[in-house]
Amino acid sequence: MPDQLTQESFTVFVKNAEPKLSYALAAAYGPQVGKEATADAMAYGWEHWDDVKDMKNPAGYLYRVGQTAARKYRRKQALFPAVESRELPQVEPGLPSALEGLTELQRIAVVLLYAMEWSEREIADLLGVDRSTVRRHRDRGLAKLRSSLEVDAGA
Question: How far is CA 149 from the centre of its chain?
Fold first, then answer.
């Protein structure tokens, strides 16, 4: 049975890291797979908390654990379900399939920056990359989305 201090430190970590981890994995693998991968990553974190808590970037490490977990949940289905235009008129109906056309890192950068309003620094810290890498994937992802959705960047 873990001691009280261990439980408390993990609880604080989960409160701060789990939402970000969940959003990042959902951006990468879709909402359903992201949810399952997050649960697996957090369970791993609890089981190995004595080692994980002392890491430089425990949330980033558990993101990698979640990536591995996502492989077993990936199905031959769309990452993002089709959007019924009458249900969500503010969402471009072609956006889900356009997002699937992005690389994983491009999708993470675009979704977390624009849909979840994360900072470049938050994404870079979670992924363990430089901010310039996040910007590069954002720029390439936006260019692909514009092309796929036939949007003029100057409009």
Answer: 22
Q: Are residues 17 and 39 in the same domain?
A: yes
Burial (CB count <10 Å: 0-12, 13-18, 19+), residue 152: exposed
7-19 core/surface letters (b: 16 or more CB in 10 A; e: else):
eeebeebeeebbe
pTM of the predicted model, to two decimals?
A: 0.66
> Across residues 91-118, what is the average pLDDT?
88
What pLDDT, in 10s, does the model give residues 33-60? 999 999 999 999 999 999 999 999 999 9
| 55 CB-near residues (< 8 Å, 6+ apart) | 61
Structural domain harbouring 19: 1-77
Mean pLDDT, the chain, rounded, equals 87
